[in-house]
Amino acid sequence: MASRKHATAEEMARAQKEISVSEFFAKNRHLLGFDNPRKALLTTIKEAVDNSLDACEEAGILPEISVTIEQIEDDRFRVVVEDNGPGIVRAQIPNIFGKLLYGSKFHSRRQSRGQQGIGISAAGLYGQMTTGKGPRIESRTRRGKAHRYEIQMDFTKNKPLITLDQELDDWPRPHGTTFAVTLEASYQRGLRSVDDYIKQTAVANPHAEIRYQPPGSDEPRVYPRAVKEVPERPAEIKPHPYGVELGELMKMLRDTRCRWLSSFLQEEFCRVGPKVAREIIAAAGLGERSYPTRIAREEADRLYRAIQKTRISAPPTTCLSPIGEERIREGLMKECDADFYSVATRPPAVYRGNPFQIEVGIAWGKPGEERLEVDQRGRIRKTKRKRTTDTEDLLGAADEPVRVLRFANRVPLLFQQSSCAFTKAVIQTSWKNYGLSQARGALPTGSAVILVHMASVWVPFTSEAKEAIAPYPEIMKEVKLALQEAGRRLGAHIRKGKRVASEYQKRNYIEKYLPHVGVGLQEILGFDDEEREETVEALRESMEAARKI
Description:
Elements (H helix, E strand, L loop, with lengths): L8 H7 L5 H7 L9 H22 L5 E10 L2 E8 L9 H6 L20 H13 L4 E5 L5 E9 L4 E10 L7 E9 L9 H11 L4 E5 L7 E3 L22 H10 L5 H8 L5 H11 L12 H13 L15 H11 L4 E6 L3 E3 L2 E11 L5 E5 L5 E5 L18 E6 L2 E3 L7 H8 L8 E2 L5 E2 L2 E9 L16 H53 L3 H20 L1
Parallel strand pairs: 1-7, 14-18
Antiparallel strand pairs: 1-2, 2-6, 3-4, 3-6, 4-5, 7-8, 9-11, 10-11, 11-18, 12-13, 14-15, 16-17
Helix pairs in contact: 3-5, 6-11, 8-9, 9-10, 12-13, 13-14
């Protein structure tokens, strides 16, 4: 058998070629959340809804979003997502939906759902790869006419190919966008499904009205808004010196238009004033009037180390838009019918120079179970509260692990729960101190829902699929503190309920045996029946009076 000929350096050189980012993700679509047909359906809807919410909020419009899933064949579905947002300028539509890594939020340091400019174009790419059909987009701005585009993606060059460009005269809405795509998918109900995602989105976005029509349904499910105010638009901030690495600092020095090093530090970074700039420059052994573009690598290294050693205030938090305690409570009450709610918000903190804020909400106690309540007259009564919502409740049974709802910038995280910083923080919190049962290394058990939300200008996801938060020590610490704060209120409520239950049980014992005490006193003291009843009633009144003291 003849031996195979080995390749030469020249032959290997001829085989080298540039790889398009679209071509890379077409081969590695699992990195973006398109692991399997079921997850692909969820990821497609998630990316489209997130874009719609971002656009509406940025334009100051209360979101009205419609999601429709239509089953075409056994393994093929058509997804349509409509919104009442500001619309998209005609020239930008092909690039936004047909080009990966194209967007306006990657370089922006303010809170938003989208970050990389990959999601919605990747959904169109997946549909094209599995069915041969690209996405169809219809959009209209306030001042323009409606346009319809059908595009295909040339993933070897990462650019869109327009197959249809049509102007529409009878578009039904004054402004908004419709995204439609046919893809190979699988629809299932239950946890980590599209249904679950829509419901959790309604919890974290109580200002949005969502209409959702799953396959085989004649009427859409409506999730009405509970808040009629658009969240305040976060402001954009400059990078913080602590969040810049040496390579990025060298690039900023090369690209700046500032003439002097002192003005460079003050104008290119936040929280750097004249005094701090002088401290940094002196510690680096440089001059205030040094030319930034002429600073060598060794000098840039000294400047970087001086920045790390200088005390600089934390970045401003105007770039964040947390949900807020009242809105978290309203969102939980709207979609989670519980007996008690506890909400806690931590002050803003910083990781790697990026500001972030942690919010926690807990819903506890499932309706339909018997509860003890104290009325206005101080009497304890056993009640059985009925459900007040018609939707499927998020609360589980009392002997099941609690449900953890994870959110990053108001977006639900449904997969990779065990590797997420939020889940690890919940497990590491001692819930026995707050009245819940918990085995070592496991989630607590009880009829409860724990919501954890992180608002940040840059969320440290563990992958491009944006399914879990990396366990940075700063993030873990803030989540634990928020959980403990909300947990203390829950523990006080549970302990109060146990005290009421104990008193109720004691009263039942007294009520049960008080007539027998009357009979015994009648036999000993020779009371007649009327005196016996009067004595029993006097004892009962004395017991009530003693309880009120």
